[in-house]
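Module 6 notes. Inverse folding takes a fixed backbone as the condition and produces residue identities as the prediction. Think of it as a translation problem where the source language is geometry and the target language is the twenty amino acids. Below is one complete input and output pair. Work through it position by position during the lab.
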């Protein structure tokens, strides 16, 4: 049986577990991150993790959810919802999301490895998974269905393809990468936006 923790210890350990999870899941992924790695910085036994989270996957989801509102504010509220028209909204969203991916290793990992979300969801209850629904992706899909041309799944795929480019920035060259992203974002927003909505 795991030891009893005071409320203060629980708060401290929870934050340490979330910090370790965010760092380790971003760099190693779900499968390669061990319980030992997650718990050692918090100074607890591996089995004590279950006094705080139902599973490693539950910890992964919580680390993601903790960032969800900040990510939504930056890419949806300050990006997608600030545009003067559909084209400008989409351009702002893509630029804000590229900046987020460059600064946020966990979200960059999730975009590059979408199978990790499926692994997490497979281990959690439907109620717990539902807590992750309605994030920035849901806002984008709703925007795409209402205001962009084409099958929303294809549009989402095109946008995901653009957002995979930052993971190849080094291959494109540091001096050329910003100009490449600007041109790519302009081309995609022009191609997805109906002429009447520009």
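Target side of the pair, the amino acids:
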């Amino acid at each position: 049986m795991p030891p009893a923790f005071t409320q203060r210890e629980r708060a401290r350990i929870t934050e340490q577990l979330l910090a370790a999870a965010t760092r380790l899941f971003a760099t190693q992924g779900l499968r390669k991150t061990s319980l030992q790695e997650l718990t050692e910085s918090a100074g607890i036994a591996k089995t004590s993790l279950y006094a705080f989270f139902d599973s490693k996957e539950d910890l992964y989801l919580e680390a993601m959810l903790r960032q969800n509102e900040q990510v939504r504010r930056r890419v949806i509220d300050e990006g997608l919802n600030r545009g003067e028209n559909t084209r400008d909204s989409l351009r702002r969203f893509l630029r804000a999301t590229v900046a987020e991916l460059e600064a946020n290793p966990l979200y960059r990992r999730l975009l590059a490895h979408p199978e990790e979300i499926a692994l997490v969801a497979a281990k959690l209850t439907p109620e717990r998974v539902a807590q992750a629904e309605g994030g920035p992706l849901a806002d984008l899909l709703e925007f795409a269905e209402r205001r962009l041309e084409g099958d929303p799944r294809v549009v989402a795929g095109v946008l995901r393809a653009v957002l995979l480019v930052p993971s190849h920035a080094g291959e494109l060259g540091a001096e050329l990468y910003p100009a490449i992203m600007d041109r790519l974002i302009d081309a995609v927003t022009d191609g997805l936006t109906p002429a009447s909505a520009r």
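Reference fact for the lab report: Residues 1-53 form a domain with the Arc Repressor Mutant, subunit A fold (CATH 1.10.10.60).
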